[in-house]
């Protein structure tokens, strides 16, 4: 059993994973930003900001990230913050990360560098022991102990074996293409926004699954080009997470698409405090595709709608009939 795991980020996923793995580690330390949340976890065993009704297991303790005290004694450090924060956090704690396994769950892409979280973590820490865990995993369901599958992505398969016990509460599959596992999480968020947009206008089942299938084809085309893992399409990080996020209204990314489609919010939209990873990574994934020679018409249309350059109906017309063609108009004169 791992003796001590540090989790950076006391938000939904950080807290949920703390609860889930706390039966498989002697101690879990959640590093948060707010003193009142840290106090509440230590005194009341409760994170009131994210899971007010959940009694946390007694071996979960909290500390302020500012001091990162005790991190040096952790065997594994899990990073569960929005992707935009990962570089600065890892930079700040890099001296405490030597010889540890670093686990990332953030589903984003840095822009404009187009780097995944593991690439950023390696750059900032120089520690190659990096693992990603990704799958159809809504935080609340993880926290409350429901069945969940996940893919462990690790370039070094011995790291996957080491972490199988810590994540033994999940049904696991594995990939040694760490970057591809991470990119599945980025791609599915973008298509979940698209699914929300599409469903806001076209709600029939045939319409819904036709669009989903078109998105999944584009996602698989991307993965086929960049991944050495020929089985990735059937893994939890790919098929499962794509379907979960694109289909279920609990997803923030799908909800963003629905709200944009229904004109409830104006785009481009940035809501402070809500983690919408897909809206931040859509430009990046299109550019990354272009770098590998992958054309991504659906992601491009999603970006156009999200940034107010097109409407859903125009987008759908383009998808069904192809881009509008310029036709020469004959002027018919009366008389
Ligand atoms: N919520 C979910 O169901 C899942 C989330 N993820 C991924 O996990 C990542 C985090 O997402 P959530 O936990 O849902 O977000 P969240 O918005 O619920 O929580 C993020 C937490 O990070 C903290 N934070 C932000 N910047 C920080 C900094 N500089 N230093 C310390 N703490 C900082 C915030 O205070 C907040 O507590 C995202 O990339 C998301 O895609 C992955 C799987 C499932
Ligand atoms: O990644 C997730 C589930 O696997 C959570 O998705 P959202 O960020 O869209 O809520």
UniProtKB/TrEMBL annotation:
Residue ranges constituting the Glycerol-3-phosphate dehydrogenase NAD-dependent N-terminal domain according to the UniProt record: 5-158
Binding-site residues for NAD(+), renumbered to this chain: 9-14, 139, 252
Superkingdom to which the source organism belongs: Archaea
PROSITE patterns according to UniProt: NAD_G3PDH
Residues the entry annotates as binding substrate: 107, 252-253
Record bears the keyword NAD: yes
Active-site residue numbers: 188 (proton acceptor)
GO molecular function annotation: NAD binding; oxidoreductase activity, acting on the CH-OH group of donors, NAD or NADP as acceptor
Keyword NAD (UniProt): yes
Pfam families per the UniProt record, alphabetical: NAD_Gly3P_dh_C, NAD_Gly3P_dh_N
BP GO terms, sorted: carbohydrate metabolic process; glycerol-3-phosphate catabolic process
InterPro entries on file: 6-PGluconate_DH-like_C_sf, 6PGD_dom2, G3P_DH_NAD-dep, G3P_DH_NAD-dep_C, G3P_DH_NAD-dep_N, NAD(P)-bd_dom_sf
A Gene Ontology cellular-component term: cytosol
Glycerol-3-phosphate dehydrogenase NAD-dependent C-terminal domain: residues covered: 177-316
The entry's keywords: NAD, Oxidoreductase
Family the entry assigns: Belongs to the NAD-dependent glycerol-3-phosphate dehydrogenase family.
PANTHER family: GLYCEROL-3-PHOSPHATE DEHYDROGENASE, GLYCEROL-3-PHOSPHATE DEHYDROGENASE [NAD(+)] 2, CHLOROPLASTIC
Protein's name according to its UniProt entry: Glycerol-3-phosphate dehydrogenase (NAD(P)+)
Species, as recorded: Methanoculleus thermophilus
Lineage: Archaea, Methanobacteriati, Methanobacteriota, Stenosarchaea group, Methanomicrobia
